[in-house]
Write a structure and sequence with these properties.
The structure is a single chain. This protein is an alpha/beta fold. Helices cover about 35% and strands about 15% of the residues. The protein contains 14 helices and twelve strands. The radius of gyration is 24 Å and the shape is globular.
């Protein structure tokens, strides 16, 4: 706010000599008018900030409050646009204006029509799958932007993540961890398809789902995500950079719920290192949200090797969004995964850290829309 206030502050000017009137007119009306203008401008700026901050709190609060006569599935957060939504409203291209390093969320009145006809798309429904330690809460900006454009959005809390009430240390398999996602896909009606989006460890999770439900997934988007090959585990993928990512090694805290003589049951991340590891380009308020919302990462699913066939997993169209400022999954590792099994389409999100839904929400949203339009 310091720089913003400096920009709005009136510039100093030299006073010109003026004739003093014997009976000067009252200036109260003028000063009141100027005060109203300044107040209105400040209120608009404050409203924009408050609106963005409130989204994060609202998505969590809404999940907790939905009960009683409105059953709520704690494994997912489903939010659909109402009939009043402007279905063709989308944000301007990120290249059309100067951008701040935080890429702040656009307000609804700034969204412009880009002529998308949702009924002509293969699907207008996105399913967002978070990474290890995250939850559905991390997608709040992406949810707001997609819904403003008329898309349907489901943000899933995987087992033991977000507000899903399960002990992370008790998760013993990948199938158990991704059950909220597979339940969601299984309950889709016949012929209904979605665009599946996975971040970080969520890449392994959507890969598992692609093998099970290839006919229900129109496209799969990997965002700074683990895109594995057949017979590979997420741990195998990370081992490719063993010794080269000191920050990740420093941040990891292994938990042994079954005793120190047994394998780890989950992994925590040192809070003092979260900013540098996951959010080095993200706004402070989003880092604060993450610091109180992140949970342990179950260890067993990270160890599990995936069975991915060409007939099922290989039949789903894959897209990859790279994050060049990523300290958790460095760009070199991302490119290694891409080269091992090239997807249909790759795009690099300039200036994005490991959490582009915070650091570059508009630019990431634009890429998701472009992917949805590819015939």
């Amino acid at each position: 706010m310091g720089n913003l206030c400096a920009c709005l502050a009136p510039k100093s000017v030299k006073k010109r000599p003026t004739k003093r009137l014997a009976n000067p007119p009252p200036v109260s009306n003028l000063s009141n008018r100027w005060a109203r203008i300044r107040s209105s401008r400040k209120e608009r700026l404050d409203d924009a900030v408050i609106h963005e901050q409130a989204l994060a709190a609202a998505i969590l609060l809404q999940q907790h409050q939905q009960n009683g006569s409105m059953p709520f599935d704690r494994s997912s957060s489903l939010r659909y646009p109402n009939s009043a939504t402007k279905k063709n409203s989308l944000p301007r291209s990120s290249s059309s204006r100067a951008r701040s390093h935080t890429d702040a969320l656009l307000q609804p009145h700034q969204l412009v029509n880009q002529g998308i006809k949702l009924d002509e798309l293969e699907t207008n429904q996105f399913v967002l799958v978070h990474g290890g330690g995250f939850g559905a809460w991390c997608w709040y900006k992406t949810i707001a932007l997609l819904e403003e454009g008329g898309f349907k959005v489901a943000a899933i809390d995987l087992t033991g993540s977000g507000i899903h009430s399960f002990d992370t240390n008790s998760i013993t398999s990948l199938s158990q961890y991704v059950k909220p996602l597979t339940d969601f896909l299984e309950n889709l009606s016949d012929g209904e398809k979605v665009i599946l989006v996975g971040h970080d460890f969520g890449g392994a999770c959507i890969s598992y789902a692609m093998e099970l439900f290839p006919l229900k997934i129109a496209k799969a988007v990997f965002i700074a995500a683990a895109m594995l090959t057949d017979g590979q585990s997420t741990l195998d993928m990370f081992s490719q950079q063993a010794g080269s990512n000191d920050l990740m090694q420093q941040a990891q805290i292994f938990l042994y719920a079954n005793g120190n003589d047994k394998p780890p049951t989950s992994i925590d991340l040192e809070k003092s290192l979260l900013r540098d590891l996951l959010f080095n380009q993200s706004p402070a308020k989003d880092i604060a949200l993450a610091s109180v919302s992140m949970r342990s990462i179950p260890f067993a699913p990270v160890l599990e090797k995936l069975c991915l066939s060409d007939l099922k997993y290989g039949s789903v169209r894959r897209f990859y969004i790279e994050t060049p400022e990523d300290n958790a999954i460095p760009i070199s590792l991302q490119e290694s995964m891409i080269n091992a099994r090239p997807p249909e389409w790759v795009s690099r999100l300039k200036g994005a850290d490991h959490s582009p839904f915070f650091s570059k929400p508009q630019a990431m949203h634009k890429l998701l829309i472009e992917i949805s339009k590819i015939p």
